[in-house]
Amino acid sequence: MFNVEIRKFALSHRESGTAVILFFLYAICYAYQITNFSISIDDEELVFSSSSQFVELGRWMHPLIRETFWPQVVTPFGPYLIFGVCICLGYVYLLKSFGLKKIELFHLAAFSGFILFPVWFAQLEFAGNVIPLGIGVLAISLATTLTLDAIEHPSGRIAALSSSALLVAIATGCYQSAILIFPVLVIGVAVYKDLILEDRISVFLRSILILIAVLLLSVAIYLVMARLVMLGYGIGPSKYGLSFVDPHAILTRPMAVMNAVVGDLQGMYFSWWKDYGAAPYVFSWVVIGGFAVLLISTARSSSR
Prior knowledge:
With 304 residues, the chain is mainly α. The chain folds into 2 domains: 2-245, no CATH class; 248-304, no CATH class. The protein has 16 helices and no strands. Helix 2 (13-29) packs across helix 6 (78-97) and helix 9 runs parallel beside helix 11 (181-196). It is globular, with a radius of gyration of 20 Å. It starts with a helix and ends with a helix. The mean pLDDT is 78.
């Protein structure tokens, strides 16, 4: 059953060529990281840590990575190359999800913008994140491909959605925030293919329900795997790890949680930049301008 899902990931010669082009772009954008080797104090500690590092945070994929194909993550060149391969392949699968057969200049520019997003540079400063983040992005891209295929083709839906949930759980085990990428991609592609192109609201609503089901199953798989790996290493969750999700607070004080989220978003985009002089005003207008460009381009696409 799952062999059928694996065959869906096969790339054509054109798609493989696209991945090679994307990797060259990645190598140019990350030339400094690939050709230089500098480590932080955290990296120095990671060198002498056991493979069970990060298990207490719920990132159960980290020890599996270190005990299988990359025992020492604090090494030059290699981790960034693996990250590049993963993120390039993930982008190709996203193009497939959108139904794009031919790559154009816009897609290359979009890829460059994607890999140059500041969050990657912040995360990749720590060597322990490089390989897991690459695997996480690739897993999310594959899960998006399977989920959208299940939405459009009812046959084999259970196998596709189960595989999707497993991939999302793997990505979450690499880095918890990776799970947030999944609904953004699925909803984005569903909007593009169903609402904008074909105006099929019922299909879009079904997509949302399927997305919720996959997310719930993936969270269950993630929690089970995190617990099993913790038991295997004899480690319990840390307070910091437990702080990522507080179901009790969400259920008992939902409005307080929402106010805190809105407050953090407001601070992130409009307030916390005040220490940098003119940066908050520039950054705010960039965000507003980006939303305006998105709305205008969406309106033009829907009118075609």
